């Protein structure tokens, strides 16, 4: 995990509401946000929980990858000071992490699995509030890096 991240401290604002739907000023345009990543890119994402009074955390899950939790804390993430305390020696490896209400979590992963991979909150109602996105991981630029076709005997859906 001692690499330079391609996406450094990208902030995904996580809105935590304890009762009812979010206020009108927090509704998002309907659609899933997409981020295109080169194959084998090193990605760092900081997820910031924005509700200090809410008791609800957000279990964020990434499909297609395990990631390393390199840092976490309460309050607002400080890009000048908090990375100095990241655990880059033996970080915890996961595919789901709780973003605390009024706190933040920093994760890192390598984009080494080509395809389109969903990242979302595990509270279903939060998906309709915009707590979802997808990573598009390219499969390389050289023909030798392209994925082989599926086997001919692969069952059809």
Automatic annotation (TrEMBL):
One of its GO terms (cellular component) is extracellular region. The keyword Cell inner membrane does not apply. Its main location: secreted. Residues 17-138 form the Plastocyanin-like domain. Signal peptide: none annotated. InterPro entries: Cu-oxidase_C (IPR011706), Cu-oxidase_fam (IPR045087), Cu_oxidase_CS (IPR033138), Cu_oxidase_Cu_BS (IPR002355), Cupredoxin (IPR008972). GO terms for molecular function: copper ion binding; oxidoreductase activity. It is found in: Secreted. Belongs to the multicopper oxidase family. This is Plastocyanin-like domain-containing protein. It comes from Salix udensis.
């Amino acid at each position: 995990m001692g690499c330079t991240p391609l996406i450094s401290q990208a902030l995904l604002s996580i809105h935590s509401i304890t009762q009812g739907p979010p206020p009108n000023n927090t509704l998002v345009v309907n659609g899933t946000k997409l981020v295109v990543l080169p194959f084998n890119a090193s990605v760092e994402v900081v997820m910031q929980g924005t509700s200090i009074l809410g008791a609800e955390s957000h279990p964020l899950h990434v499909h297609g990858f395990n990631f390393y939790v390199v840092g976490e804390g309460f309050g607002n993430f400080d890009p000048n000071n908090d990375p100095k305390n990241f655990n880059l020696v033996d970080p915890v490896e996961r595919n789901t992490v709780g973003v605390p209400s009024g706190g933040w979590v920093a994760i890192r992963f390598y984009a080494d699995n080509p395809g389109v991979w969903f990242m979302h909150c595990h509270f279903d109602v939060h998906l309709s509030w915009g707590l979802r996105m997808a990573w598009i991981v390219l499969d390389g630029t050289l023909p030798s890096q392209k994925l082989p076709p599926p086997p001919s005997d692969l069952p059809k859906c």
